[in-house]
Amino acid sequence: MNIHDAHCDVLCKMWLDPSLSFENGDGLHTNLNQMRKAGAKLQLFAIYVPESVPDGAKFDCALEMVDIFHEKVIKPYDDVVPVYSKEDAENIPDGKIGAMLTLEGCDAIGKEAGRLKTLLRLGVRSVGLTWNYGNATADGILESRGAGLSDFGRSIVDLHNQHRIWTDVSHLSVRAFWDVIDQGRYVIASHSNAKAICTHPRNLDNQQLTALIEKDSFIGVTFVPKFLRNDRNASVSDIIHHIEHICSLGGTSNIGLGSDFDGIKEVPAGLECYEGYSRLIEELNRYYSKEQVDGFLGKNLIARMP
Ligand SMILES: [Zn+2]
């Protein structure tokens, strides 16, 4: 089915529990057997360093996740191929699944741009400046100060612009979001929903969504129940509501999916793990044309890749 998913936290889970198998790990929402069955084409794997890791150990932790990506996700499987560029993403052979690295939060680099350059050399193609709290680049959405980009953060966005790397606005404070809209050349919201449908602070309001659409950015609708519905009782149809809302703002060709599988404890009914994608696709096919569904499942992501 050519599913492209812009965000999962498999690497973090496998770092926390080295006994997990990527192929058939029961503890993973996104495992290879399910991806094969449902028809995965490209998965973005976030390097997310848990908040509990001390500052001095964060960069090492990020490097360990890069190692897990290569040793445990790619190397053992003939049908998993690394994706380092738009060209790679456009040319994933039939029967193979592409895997691409992203960074969720620049806490791991401290104030060292060289560390980020190292991660880019290792294959990271999309960088979220923050997770929910503040760091040297900016504040995240739950940091009460609500600051925008620091001077260091601006230099990092410049670096992304020069190296054709996505700057991910999911998790950013509102001020930092608008700073990135001003400065970023390649902007993505990898896993965020519409605030007009569900008021969680992680979601984006209509002005923000419209700004992303005007910038021709990708918007990954995410499966996090508390971002889907105020009462958290989410099911597949709630994902359709968010997609429909972003379509109504003119974003039909910007929309894709960023599940946040393995980064969430609660999951929507019917989408308990990657296999549930089949149910979501059935539902999408009821409301949208084949061309639109192909866009949501991946074409929109590939088209917007720098
Ligand atoms: Zn996240």
From TrEMBL:
Q: What is its EC number?
A: 3.4.13.19
Q: Name one Pfam family in it.
A: Peptidase_M19
**PANTHER family, sorted:** DIPEPTIDASE, MICROSOMAL DIPEPTIDASE
One MF term in the entry's GO annotations: dipeptidase activity
The UniProt keyword set, sorted, is: Dipeptidase, Hydrolase, Protease
Give a yes or no for keyword Hydrolase in this entry: yes
Q: Which SUPFAM superfamilies match?
A: Metallo-dependent hydrolases
**PROSITE patterns attached here?**
RENAL_DIPEPTIDASE_2
Instruction: Please name the InterPro entries in this protein's record.
Output: Metal_Hydrolase, Pept_M19
Q: What is this protein called?
A: Membrane dipeptidase
| Signal peptide location | none
- Gene3D superfamilies according to UniProt: Metal-dependent hydrolases
Q: Would the keyword Protease turn up in this protein's UniProt record?
A: yes
Question: Which superkingdom is the protein from?
Answer: Bacteria
